[in-house]
Amino acid sequence: MSDLANDNVPGNPSIQADAAERLGTDGVGKLLLRFSIPAITGMIVNALYNVVDRIFVGRWVNEMALGGLSLVMPLMTVSMAFAMLFGVGAANMISMRLGQGRKSEAENALNHCFWLLLISGIILMALQLIFLDPLLSILGAQQGSASLPYARSYYLIILYGQVFLSVGFGFSHCTRAQGFPAISMISMFIGAGINFILDPLLIFVFRWGVDGAAWATIIAQLAQAIWILAFSFSKKAVIRLRLRLLQRSSPRSFKPSPGIVTQIMAFGSAQFFLQFVMSAVQLIYNTSVGRYGVASLGVSNGGDIALSGMNINGSMAMLILMPVFGISQGAQPILGFNYGAKKFDRVFKAYRAAVVVATVICVLGFAMTELFPLQLVKLFAPIGSPALLRFTPWAMRVMMLLLPLNGFQIISANFFVVTGRPRTSIILSMLRQCLALIPCIFIFGRIWGLWGIVAAAPVADGVSFVATSIMILFEMKKLRAQMATS
C-alpha cells in the first residue's frame, strides 16, 4: 500500500504519528515530490476557480464582462489574504510544533485557525456588502464603463460564499501541515470539478451569464469546505478540530488564547502581506490602464480593452506561478519540521531542491508565453476585438521577460518564514509586488502611458531578484554557523 494510503488509516495513532515523523526521516527529494505534487495540483486547481470563470466569460459572454471580473480581483485577493493569514500561519505553527513533539499545542493552533477563519469571513462579507458600490468606484470603475455592471453583478454573488472560501482554502494548509497532502489535494479537485461542471450549465443552459459563473464558484467553495472540515473532525487526522468552548475541566475543549492568535498571525503575516500587496497592485493596474488605455490604444473603449488584456495576462501569470507556490507550500512542512528538529542539513537540501524545481517551472512558462502569446490570448477571447488581440500578446511577452527569476524569489521568501524571520519574508514579498513595482507603474506610466505600465513588471522582477539573492546569502551563512555548533 502506498504512503498516502497508509496516512489515511483511521484511528491508528502510530500511523498518525508516522505521517509527521517521516518529515524528518524520509529522503528530502521523495518528501518534496510527495508533498509538492498535491500542493501544485491544489494551487493550480484553486487558481482555476477564477481562471475557468474568465475563460467561459471571455469566450461566451464578451470581453467587457472579462474586464468586469478584472475590476473585482483586488477585493477577491483581499479575501484570500485573510484566509492565508490564518491558514498558512496556523500551518507553519502546526508543522513546527509537531516537529518539536508538542502535539497539544499544534491542535490548539488548528482550533484557533477555524474560529479565526470563520469570524474573519463573516466580517469581510458584511463589510463588502455594505460598501460594495464605493469599493467599486475606488477600484477604478468609471461611470459609464461597460465593465461596471458585470463587475457588480458577479461580485455581489461571490460575497455570499466568503465564509466557504475562508474556511475551505485556509484549512487546506493545516491539513497538509499534518502530513496529509492528498486530503488537501482532493478538496481542491472537488471544488474545481464542481465549478467546471456548473459554469457551462449555469452560463449557457440557464443563461445566467456572469451570475452563473459566480454561483458556480461559491457552490464549489461550499463543497470544498465541507470536505476539508469532515476530515478535520475525523479520527484520521493527526490533530482534530474541536468546537467545545471554555470547558476548562475538559482536556479536549478549546480554550481561546490571544497569545496563540498573535503567533498564528506572525507566522502567516508574510503570505498575508504578499496577497494584500497583490490586491493593491491590481488596484493600481486597474486605475492606471483605465486612465491610459484610450490614448495608447486609440479606441474609445481602450480602458475596458486594456482591463481585459491585463486580466488575461494576469490569468496566465497565475497559472504559471501557481505550481511555484505549490512547490513553496509543499516544501513548507519539510522545512518547518526539520528546522524545529534542528536537522539543518535537511533544511538546506529541501531549500535547494525547491528552488531548482521552481526555476524549471518558470523557465517553461517563460518559453510558452514568449513563443505562443497569441494562441494563449485566444483561449480567453477567440473573437476579441483587433485592439485586444494586438495589445495583449505584446504585453504578455514584455511582462514575462524575467519570469525565470521568480521561482527563486518565491521559494526564498517562504524560507524566511520557516526559519522564524517573518519580517524578512514580508520585505522580500513586498519588494517585487509593491516597493519596486508600484513606483515603476507610476513613473513609467507618466512617461510612456500604457506601454510603460506593461514594462514595469520585468524591471521590478530584476530589482527583487538582486535583493533576494543578497539576503538569502546572509541567511545561509547564519544557518551554517548554527549547524556547526549544533
Automatic annotation (TrEMBL):
One annotated Gene Ontology cellular component of this protein: plasma membrane
Residues spanning the membrane: 31-52, 72-94, 114-132, 152-171, 183-206, 212-234, 260-285, 350-374, 394-418, 425-444, 450-474
Subcellular location: Cell membrane
InterPro entries: MATE_fam (IPR002528), MATE_MepA-like (IPR045070), MATE_MepA_subfamily (IPR051327), MdtK-like (IPR048279)
Alphabetized Pfam families for the sequence: MatE
One Gene Ontology MF term: antiporter activity
Membrane topology: Multi-pass membrane protein
Name the record gives this protein: Multidrug export protein MepA
Organism (species): Treponema primitia (strain ATCC BAA-887 / DSM 12427 / ZAS-2)
